[in-house]
Structures are given as C-alpha cells and as structure tokens.
Amino acid sequence: MTAEIHHIAIQDDWEMSRGFGEYVVSTRGTHFEESGFIHATTADRVNDVVASRYADLDLPLLDITLNVEALEAAGIAVDWVDGAPRIVGELPMSAEVVVSERVIPR
C-alpha cells in the first residue's frame, strides 16, 4: 500500500467544504452518500483521471494529496479495488490528512 493517495476535486466544492471540516464529494456529480466512498487514485494515475472524468469541464481542479495512515488513524478506511483506492468515509480536511492541495494546470 502507498503512503499517499490523491483525490481530484472541483476547486469550488473543496473550498465550500472547508467550513464544515469534511469533504463529501465522491467524484464529479456524485455525493459520498450515493456511492458509499470517495474516489481516489495513485500519483501515477492523476492525469488519466483528469483526462477521463474532467476533460470536458471548464472549472479549476485540485489534486488533493492525502496521507493514508492519517485517514486510518481518524477511523476512515481506505479500500483498494482493482488497484484504485476508495476512501470509505467522509474526508476530514485536517492538516494531518491533507498533505497538499495543488491546482491542476489545464
């Protein structure tokens, strides 16, 4: 298992979640409650995810790097399905969990 995973977020969704301290968007157009997990990926697949899920979207995107150990310490499981990580819980927006936020150049 890798120490860090990535989530691609629409910048407005991510920023609006700050006030709540948790992020609950599974992926573009899907809420955590609908899917039961938050989509994530590995560093080497970030560009593939952006190209396949967000290429037609003209909104700023963020690459959110997450610490797997900190997620698990917060009681949030990370399951691996077909080589892709799934965050099985609402994502805490704490400094321990969120390693970095990077605007994805488009």
Summary, kept brief:
This protein has 106 residues and is of the alpha+beta class. Helices cover 24% and strands 39% of the residues.
Describe the structure.
This protein has 106 residues and is an alpha+beta fold. It has a single domain, classed as ADP-ribosylation fold (Alpha-Beta Barrel). Helices cover 24% and strands 39% of the residues. The chain contains four helices and ten strands; from the N terminus they run βαβββαβαβαββββ. The strands form four sheets. Strands 1-6-10 form a three-stranded antiparallel β-sheet. The protein has a three-stranded antiparallel β-sheet with strand order 5-8-7. A hairpin with a 2-residue loop joins strand 3 and strand 4. The longest helix is centred in the middle third of the chain and has 8 residues. The chain is globular and about 35 Å long.
